[in-house]
Amino acid sequence: MAQYILKRLFFSLITLVGITFFVFLTIHMIPGDPVEIIAGGEADEPTKAKIRSSLGLDKPLVVQYVTYMSGLVRGDLGRSIWTRKPVLSEVWNRAVATVELGIFGLIISIAIAIPAGVISATRASSIVDYLCMAVSFLGVSMPAFWVGILLMMAFSIEFPLFPAMGRGEPLLPAIWVSFQGDFESLRDSLSHLVLPAVTLGLFNAAFIARMTRSSMLEVLNQDYIRTARSKGLAEFKVVYKHAFRNALLPIITVVGMQFGYLLGGAVLTESVFAWPGLGRFIVESILARDYPFIQGALLFFGTVFLLVNLLTDILYSYINPRVRFE
User: Fold this and answer.
1) Around 275, how many Cα atoms within 13 Å sit in the side-chain half-sphere?
2) Structural domains in the chain plus CATH codes
């Protein structure tokens, strides 16, 4: 296992280098010039040249990339062109909000999808099965921004139960304060999380539910399941102890991939609910041609995605001991 993890980390490092090169090349191909945005349309050429030189944009792309990678090795991602603050701190401050939203969205997805998928598989071709799958197709079909607006109208305007926009107190400090008897910060944090997390989770719940149903149906038709039933085991024990555990591997794969997609796909949800996360700021940075911040943010997403895939693979051996890594 240790050898497998080291090998995966090595290839992940190579993948990250490839990501930095691809992102660097791609964002420099975007039409537009950050110097024009910073200086304004009426600035003269000497002023623009001075700004370009101060940002290092007057050097060849190869030199710029080497400079960026040398800083990256030292843990320096540069400074944001727009805010003039270190990219590392800018990315971290917004990444915490995005990860917080992504984790709660994933929890909601799992809480809805796995029970729905198991129930559909155990009652295949019944009204319950058709209803669950119809709801899952509906969840896939509805755009996140539209679901977010509907939830906002229903639970913030018609029935003002949750805030419509913004982020409350950061969750981890709020949890820490709640241990000391102050639950107001935790209540504020969770109330702001509910609507965007539900919006983010509903779309992904449809994919997980369909995968759970397919995996469970395949396992329930195996001979050892029929043997367990013939021995007189309770149906609950057959389904959840024998069938569900063996059906978990493809489900875990989908859940791990969906978490990466949740983080990357939170742009629309963050825009609808004015959530101060990384995805929303990436869009603003693209419009401002803030190259260093875009590179740092996409590097963060790539790192998280690779780590989640590695953790997913490691979980395989604990859930099913028959899985071994070469």
Assistant:
1) 34
2) 94-258+270-285 (1.10.3720.10)
